[in-house]
Structures are given as structure tokens and as C-alpha cells.
Amino acid sequence: QVQLVESGGGLVQSGGSLRLSCAASGSIFSINDMAWYRQGPGKGREFVAAIATGGATNYADSVKGRFTISRVNAKNTVYLEMNSLKSEDTASYYCKANIQQSTHYVGMDYWGKGTLVTVSS
């Protein structure tokens, strides 16, 4: 099976920085797009950033210029560097990866269980 495990969340003051990590493990043949989503208190899950295998990136307007997504393919890991954090960035952050387990299967989306980021004002 496949597991995604996020880490790096915590409590930070407004204007501060955090770096989230998400490592995929298990039966993995290849990983396609990887992405971060978040869900704030009383809100639905929203897209934050995504990165393709080749490194092309895409960001939500709300985080452009403040967050940077990156990946290390050899480690099956995706990162989210978050700077200039605001109280509205408070949320549980989830990673998603489209993973192909073998050449016989198409890629499927897998989710981590999330890591909590709290930004105090």
C-alpha cells in the first residue's frame, strides 16, 4: 500500500515561517503531480500549491509570493516553504500525490492525514 505522512506543522507568530514536508512510502512505481491543500476552521478544503514531476508549479492566488512548493523525486518527498504567514493561513495542511503503483495501473490520488499550522496574531 501507499502512505503519505506530513510533518513540520506547529504554532508560529504572524510574519513567521514554517516548512512542511510530506513523504510518500510503500509500493510506488512513479509519482506524478504532488500538491498541498488546506482546510481552515469552518471552511472547506482548498488548493494551495502543486508541482509536476518536471518541476512546473502552480499556486493559489492567496499564497503566491509567500509559499514555495518543491520536491525531491529521489526521496518521494514534497515540501512547502511558507513565509510571511498570516492568521488566515491557520489550517490543517494536507498533501496529495498521484501515484502509480506499477506499469499495470494508472495513477491514483493518495492523501496524507494532515499537519496543523496555527498562526497567532
Question: How would you describe this structure in keywords?
Answer:
mainly beta, four-stranded antiparallel beta sheet, single chain, 0% helix, seven-stranded mixed beta sheet, elongated, 121 residues
Q: Describe it for me?
A:
With 121 residues, the chain is mainly β. A hairpin with a 4-residue loop joins strand 7 (67-72) and strand 8 (77-82). The chain contains no helices and eleven strands. The protein is elongated. It has strands at residues 2-7, 10-13, 18-26, 30-39, 45-51, 57-59, 67-72, 77-82, 91-100, 108-111, 115-120. The mean pLDDT is 97.
Question: How does the SSE layout of this entry go?
Answer:
Elements: E1 2-7, E2 10-13, E3 18-26, E4 30-39, E5 45-51, E6 57-59, E7 67-72, E8 77-82, E9 91-100, E10 108-111, E11 115-120
Parallel strand pairs: 2-11
Antiparallel strand pairs: 1-3, 3-8, 4-5, 4-9, 5-6, 7-8, 9-10, 9-11
Task: Tell me briefly what this model is.
Helices cover 0% and strands 59% of the residues. The protein is an all-beta fold and 121 residues long.
* Average pLDDT figure: 97
Number of helices: 0
Contiguous low-pLDDT stretches (5 residues minimum) are none
- What fraction of residues sit in β-strands? over 45%
Between the first and last Cα atoms, what is the distance in angstroms?
40 Å
Q: Estimate the global geometry from the Cα principal axes.
A: elongated
Secondary structure category? mainly beta
The helix content, as a percent range, equals under 10%
**Global Rg:** 14 Å
| DSSP E strands, number | 11
Q: SSE order, as H and E? A: EEEEEEEEEEE
Largest sheet: 7 strands, mixed
